[in-house]
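SAMPLE LOG
Freezer: B-3
Tube label: C17
Construct: single chain, 292 aa
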Amino acid sequence: MNTKSTDTAIHNRAVLVWLTITTWQARKFDKRATAKVHSDFQAGDNAGRYTKQLVNDPVYKTLATTLANTIRAEHYGHTLAWADEGWRLLPTANYAKYTAWLRQQQNAWDTARNDFVAAYPTLRDNARSYLNGLWRAEDYPKPSEIADRFAIAVQYAPVPAQGDIRVNLASDQIASIEQTITDRVQSATQTAMQDAWTRLYDCVRNMHARLQDPRAIFRDSLIENAREITDSLTRLNITNDPNLESMRARVAQELTQYTPDTLRDVPRVRQQTADKAAEIMSAMSGFYGVAQ
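STRUCTURE (predicted):
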């Protein structure tokens, strides 16, 4: 692999993206309740902690749990692994689809947040009945402040490239920094491509596991997910790896051509598809170490 050409290709083909979802946890550690439990049971000070659930209602769970988790999962699906601290790689080929998806999610988030904000004063008051003596007004944000506890933020940044260092250092020091950047980008690019390969391999492995057993029950999502993955990998193949594209196309052609009902109702087709999945898994062996 030519390091410099790969670095140039990557920083021209992708940007980095960091998605942050902030939620109010609606939980509170209660020192007094904890102390009472320890006293009642004659337990040590470190025996446990009592944490109160300040709001217990579907309108909160829809926003803070269900929707937040869905957005995070789909964000991962639109991007590739890059760094541990939160940055993800967004290929420019997938930028338009990602930003369109993000607008839809932001609208859904705003709607769910507005529903919760409207219900919040009632939910806070209702908590008096089930918390009883544990209820404390000071545990709750003011109604005028609660909306600010829920937010979605996205940051974009360029992929680092050689020649971007503009500091007053000796030439050999700059060269050392640039080599570090190049090495990191190359390593992170390999991680991103392994992520892509692993998604495809796991998809095939999952299909094989479900289809090879004629008694195993599977949902329509088994095939729908495979179609989504093979579609997304047309945009996530950041290095234009011909092997990945070949395997992606093979999975799309050989494993997603039948409907879930056909696979359930026609044993011969189900077994043939399972056999093809096994063949593809074998063919993928060795690519980025995804197949064992």
